[in-house]
Amino acid sequence: MTPNTPTPPIGRWVYDGLQQCSYSPNDTPASDCNQPATWHILWGPGDEHSLACTDHMAYVDRSYTYFDRHHVCPDCCMPDAVWLEIEKRCIYPDHPAPALAVARAINGSQP
Length: 111
Known about the structure:
Elements: E1 39-42, E2 49-52, H1 54-63, E3 68-71, E4 82-84, E5 89-91, H2 96-107
Antiparallel strand pairs: 1-2, 1-3, 4-5
């Protein structure tokens, strides 16, 4: 992570269920990378997130500030998945109530 750099413009919503890199320099389908994602990036303490391939993660490291990242796992980008900051992964709980309890216990704060 490069200190004192802005986060990138997030751009249009892109379906991330296929876990493909969401880099798109012109923010159009024609310029989408669409390579398999290897990194899941959390841009801030909220829930703005993106997926990146290895090459575009290197670009992000050189160019932007982000809150956290971890290697893509099967639960990344699932609806209601929880980002575990300490364990560096996402989990998809069976019910939202346990998801909140897990997040609070592991992260030590409100999700």
